[in-house]
Design a protein that fits this description.
Layout: H1 3-9, H2 12-22, H3 24-50, H4 54-70, H5 74-84, H6 91-120
Helix pairs in contact: 2-3, 3-4, 3-6, 4-5, 5-6
Length: 121
Amino acid sequence: MATAELDMILDLNTLEQYCSAIGAGTLLKSVVLFEQLMPEYVGNLVKAKESGDKETLCSEAHKFKGAAGSVGLKRIQQYAQLLQHGEDAAWDAGHNEWLQAISNNAFEDLAALKSFLQTKA
């Protein structure tokens, strides 16, 4: 995958800093843990949306934003950032699209992250 494309989905600057500080192998262990938790994160978002529970949806998006950001998943973090702010004027019109973007891209982005780190290890 080209660097420009990777830069859209991964926080390459932060990942390079993490790799320098703790090593790609150590970071990859955190990514594997995140991978195990991600179906639950995404499931909680979808469940809150389907039940019409805006407060829980925003709260779960906030948690997911932090978790995604901690492993360098930039695109997912950005959509979760939008999704967590239910008070924003754009939320009502955009939240379905943002949740769909998370659902559509989360696992693919995670695979790209793992591949990136494996080349660094």
